[in-house]
Amino acid sequence: MKHLRTVTYVAEVARAGSIRRAAERLNLTPSALTRQIQDLEYELGTPIFERLPQGMRLNAAGELFARHIRDQVADLDRVRSQIADLSGVRRGHVSLACSQAFVTQVVPEEVEAYRARFPQVGFMVQVRDHAQAVTALAAFEADLALILQPPPSAELHPLFSGHQTLCALMRTGHPLASETGPVRLRDCLGHALALPDHSLAIRHHIEHALARRGVELRPVVESGSLEFLRNLVLREDLISLQIPSGIPQDPRLHSRPIDLRDLTPMTLVLAQLRGRSLSVAAAKFADQLVVRLNREAV
Amino acid sequence: MKHLRTVTYVAEVARAGSIRRAAERLNLTPSALTRQIQDLEYELGTPIFERLPQGMRLNAAGELFARHIRDQVADLDRVRSQIADLSGVRRGHVSLACSQAFVTQVVPEEVEAYRARFPQVGFMVQVRDHAQAVTALAAFEADLALILQPPPSAELHPLFSGHQTLCALMRTGHPLASETGPVRLRDCLGHALALPDHSLAIRHHIEHALARRGVELRPVVESGSLEFLRNLVLREDLISLQIPSGIPQDPRLHSRPIDLRDLTPMTLVLAQLRGRSLSVAAAKFADQLVVRLNREAV
DNA sequence: GCCCCCGTTGCCGAAGATGCAACGACACGC
DNA sequence: GCGTGTCGTTGCATCTTCGGCAACGGGGGC
């Protein structure tokens, strides 16, 4: 919006770290930018940037002002979304940061369902681990975060919280696939394992449980990609450990929950940034997602 | 601030109810205004005003947008205040809506004390009854409200809450002034009364108590001005009823609390609008006021 | 000492905002 | 029914503001 042009210049200079770089990103000349900044600093009665030989950096006053700008832009987005919603056609944009476990089933299905009702709403889905997800929320890069094992953070405002038990995942021909129902963890450890690597919360959760028993984990394959692990499981007699929400419907795959005596369920949370008010689109999508999660998680 | 110029036009048109009246207040021509409004509506993709024969009125979208503007302006004020506070000299502005009872002693003393520490801070003190005070807060015309008998309102966020017992106020020569300590209400009713009128919460409080006893109040003088009542009490053998915080130190005046069996204490509240963040100046003044009120009210 | 990147400034053209005058629409009073 | 006043709006001229261009001075790195 026009009236925010000047102030977004400030945000861009802060981000770029120098007037010249910011000018380039904004398709402006440095002179135009430096003037806008100076005018603004005059209006505020105080500089908001430190002039360093290698560029510009926000000072304390600038930090306050930059935060104000960010809030203002976000709030305007929210208002525009509310206004669009008044006219019946819901427009808007939803930005979601989620754990890898959810990109297989939950999120694509829900986005599809939502977009079937409101085709004018755009989506942006980023895969992030739990720490990155919080960062994305705080930087206003994501409206919502759907993550496993959320880190304790005052900035996180949960919209849904539930639990899911990890499942042993194998192909139908696997020895353990002859039975259904819970399986003991020690039975799994006797077979070849294909596990998520340490970039994923699932792995930490398993190791945390085994550490107390003094058992060491010796996976034959580990990967940061749950999809890769599943594809591997289809080809070999391997066992992977994944959460039910992330396991696709596939007759070639068999999954059995790990016995609750061996592994506590993982926490699954849908959250937004505390104190931020969501756009209509994001709020409604969150509502829908909560309904789904209530079906899937305990 | 420059970048808010356009949007404040909207606020002014909404307030004035017509482009022409708003233009006059803004020292602009109607043509300039109508264009700005049109541009903004184009940017938003929807009209925000209803065009009526007798002027302009905000529509639903406009209400949302106007609220956004109001919030932004208030937030910018807060940020500027915080920035000013960084430099050591506290600047800013505090706007207080208070009951008449407090303009005699409490508020002038506290304003003086505050301004002695921070001379750069300006004050605006409006006398409002409890209903008007809430309105003033909600319209962002006041940062703080210091009122008696606050109406139940979800918009009110109390920063302090206490009680004060009404006092019988008389001149030193009055028959009841020979004693100190609590006085029964029926003893007061036997003398000529000069009471606050129905525009003041004190009067309602008294009548509420008497109504349960079936006693009717027959004041010989009533007034909306507590100061007038005090001045009258100095000249005649009259009894007035006022709260201790509003009674000035004066050897010619004598006051005795009403017995607690006859009259419950009045509630005294310092409040802000819920969800609004105060400027540094207002927040610090509120802190100071709370300290004082803790000394005066139970 | 040289080079590169930095922010800044004077000057000029382009874009935007504003004022002036006039138009059409509607409400109100006679 | 018909002026009259007020309303928002529009075409055109004017003025302010914004941006681009080129050049300057300053500081870090080699």
Automatic annotation (TrEMBL), chains A, B:
GO molecular function, one term: DNA-binding transcription factor activity
InterPro entries with a match to the protein in the record: HTH-type_LysR_regulators, LysR_HTH_N, LysR_subst-bd, WH-like_DNA-bd_sf, WH_DNA-bd_sf
GO CC aspect terms: cytosol
Coiled coil: none
Keywords assigned by UniProt, alphabetized: DNA-binding, Transcription, Transcription regulation
A Pfam cross-reference name: HTH_1
Domain named HTH lysR-type: residues: 1-59
Entry-linked PROSITE patterns: HTH_LYSR
Family: Belongs to the LysR transcriptional regulatory family.
Listed name of the protein: LysR family transcriptional regulator
Annotated source species: Methylobacterium oryzae CBMB20
